[in-house]
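Entry 12.
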Amino acid sequence: MTMIKNIGKKAIAMLLFFTIICGGLYTVVVTGIGQLLFPFQTNGSLIVQNNVLTRSQIIGQPYHSMKHLWGRMSILDVQTYQDKDGNSLLYGGPSNDDPNSNKYSQLIKDRLAYIRDNHPEMGDTPVPVDLITVSASGLDPDISFAAASYQVQRIAKNKKISPNKVREIITASRHSKIGSILGEDTVNVGQVNQLLDEN
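Predicted 3D structure (tokens):
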């Protein structure tokens, strides 16, 4: 019985020790280092324009204007989630649809038709896959450089600026593949649209 009590005391002591170290001290130290060395990233990579919070650089948001660069499809929900005052909150996430299901196939067909209808100048040029599919998170802030380039003519026509100017803006927001090996070159959609709005 005494041995069980001793083991119990040690177990409780270890639980308290690791709770304080891992749950408290570690969190404070890591958060402090983040705030000191990477304050922008630690606070959510928030973009403020004219003292107004407009977006986060790492969370995608839907753009539908013909003058903007379009990102990946988002599965958005404004009905389910509310704040403490009862206001609807925008929630994005994956579709969780089976890629082999009729529903998903129809979603892809509809999106493909939508992209082609709004980019008639591209003719039979293959539509980049990320313009017709949903990302794993449903809130991917980036698209491939190819997907951004596909939209140049539409944006230029509706913004009434030259295609070269649009390409210049897209290229300024281009991020190279990791180590020039992994992945592909990407473009931050929000960053491009911010620059487009300034031109």
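Annotation: The mean pLDDT is 83. The chain has seven helices and seven strands.
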